[in-house]
Design brief:
Blueprint: E1 2-7, E2 11-18, E3 21-29, H1 36-44, E4 54-59, H2 65-76, E5 80-82, H3 103-116, E6 120-125, E7 128-134, E8 140-147, H4 149-159
Parallel strand pairs: 1-4, 4-5
Antiparallel strand pairs: 1-2, 2-3, 6-7, 7-8
Length: about 170
């Protein structure tokens, strides 16, 4: 089985795959202070670590990458592939400096191209709201980042004196 992990700024989403089929998924709050040992304790509640044949990681929180590497080595005993610069995804990145494109945005471009084809626009509602463009050639062409819904609401309630936070 393959464990796919998407570490976002607010939540971490886990997907357990048997071949191409998503067998199970679950999400937890992202805790930037988690150690590899704490990750192992948490993940054992959801996954038989010994059944894993590999782990793939997409992390928007760089400080957790090393902890997931240690977790994969010590507790899961399997290889970890970290999505980032230099990892071939089959989707060319047409951006001035491709290293500046977040792995979550690359993963979204790969997924939309695989599932729906190109051209496409991906809208990802998270801590930030991302609008990413995959052009007709199937390349990541760029996009726009905006504050996420919660951040926008917090700013609105902080600035609008008569608007109560509900």
């Amino acid at each position: 089985m393959l464990l796919a992990i998407d570490v976002g700024n607010t939540q971490t989403v886990f997907g357990l795959f048997e071949g191409a089929r998503l067998k199970e998924q679950f999400r937890v709050g992202t805790d930037r202070s988690h150690t590899s040992d704490e990750l192992a304790v948490m993940l054992r509640a959801f996954v038989d670590l010994q059944a894993l044949g590999g782990i793939v990681l997409c992390a928007s929180v760089p400080t957790l990458i090393r902890e997931y590497e240690l977790f994969a080595e010590r507790w899961a005993g399997t290889e970890l592939l970290v999505l980032g610069p230099g990892v071939s995804t089959g989707v060319p990145i047409r951006y001035d400096d491709p290293r500046e494109v977040g792995p979550d945005r690359i993963a979204n471009a790969v997924a939309v191209r695989e599932r729906h084809g190109a051209p496409a626009v991906v809208v990802d509602f998270g801590t930030s709201t991302n609008f990413d463009v995959v052009n007709a050639a199937g390349e990541f062409a760029g996009g726009v980042l905006a504050p996420g819904i919660e951040i926008s609401m917090d700013a609105l309630f902080a600035r609008a004196a008569r608007l109560p936070k509900v």
